[in-house]
Design goal:
This is TraX protein. By secondary structure, this protein is mainly α. The protein has one domain. The chain has 10 helices and no strands.
């Protein structure tokens, strides 16, 4: 008798979630880059769950990383390189029909800072150290405070260029790609031991966008792969994502510019 080996589905790993996110993101960015050529708006729908998938993965990654400081530093370097690279590319090419505003590194960094602050507050509560609690609160509020300062600088014609330069190097909540939706990261972190609660938070946010008439409500579809997450890391691809994210955006931008100008 032949032994038949049957493979059973064991759920999705962090690697699988990242791959799903990257594929959907790539389709979304095709829409973004080729809008001047009439790219159909429905391509944009594929990207609606992407931020949520990466937010969830960042919560998992931050919870298990050996050095949370190094984790944040990698995101910070990614944020700065992405901002400077996109700015330089647009200046060199001069293709104004598409604006490079993408920087998921900034979103995740802001969310990670808030997770870090939550950890400090938790440590302060455990050790009865008020200083750590205060420090944690300061860290959480930092991206919010910087947002207020930058908005104030931008409202003044004399300081607007200074603000633009500062944005490159300072994580600010209101200057993230996804805005207030980034607050889901610390919320998902607080609920990290309760998957059902994480999915409920995502569903509530999706409901908000639905009543706002925004296609961002389609973020609800991120719940399915998140529910299938098995808690395992899977294959490592950290460096791949840090390289792939800016490169695919810049390459698509160059292709779009070439097609449009010819």
């Amino acid at each position: 008798m032949n032994n038949v080996t049957t493979s059973k589905f064991k759920g999705l790993t962090t690697f699988d979630l990242k791959i799903i996110g990257i594929i959907l993101m790539f389709i979304d960015h095709i829409h973004q880059m080729f809008v001047p050529m009439g790219a159909p708006s429905w391509l944009d729908w594929f990207g609606r769950p992407v931020a949520i998938l990466f937010f969830f993965v960042s919560v998992v990654g931050f919870s298990h990383t050996r050095s949370k400081e190094k984790y944040m530093m990698r995101l910070y370097v990614g944020m700065v390189i992405m901002t400077l690279g996109s700015f330089a590319l647009q200046k060199i090419i001069g293709y104004e029909e598409v604006q490079l505003m993408n920087n998921i590194f900034r979103d995740i960094l802001v969310g990670t800072l808030m997770m870090y602050g939550i950890d400090k507050i938790s440590e302060g509560n455990s050790n009865k150290k008020v200083s750590k609690i205060v420090w944690g609160i300061v860290i959480i509020l930092f991206p919010i405070i910087t947002s207020g300062i930058l908005l104030s600088l931008m409202s003044n014609p004399n300081t607007v260029m200074v603000a633009v330069q500062i944005v490159t190097f300072v994580p600010a909540l209101l200057f993230t790609e996804n805005g207030l939706m980034v607050l889901l990261i610390p919320l998902l972190y607080l609920a990290k031991d309760y998957r059902w609660l994480q999915c409920t938070l995502i569903a509530l946010a999706a409901l908000f966008y639905f009543f706002q008439g925004s296609t961002q409500w389609m973020m609800i579809f991120a719940v399915l792969p998140i529910m299938l997450f098995n808690g395992e890391k899977g294959r490592g691809m950290r460096n791949f994502f840090y390289v792939f994210y800016p490169l695919h955006i810049w390459i698509l931008y160059l292709i779009s510019a070439y097609v449009y100008m010819h």
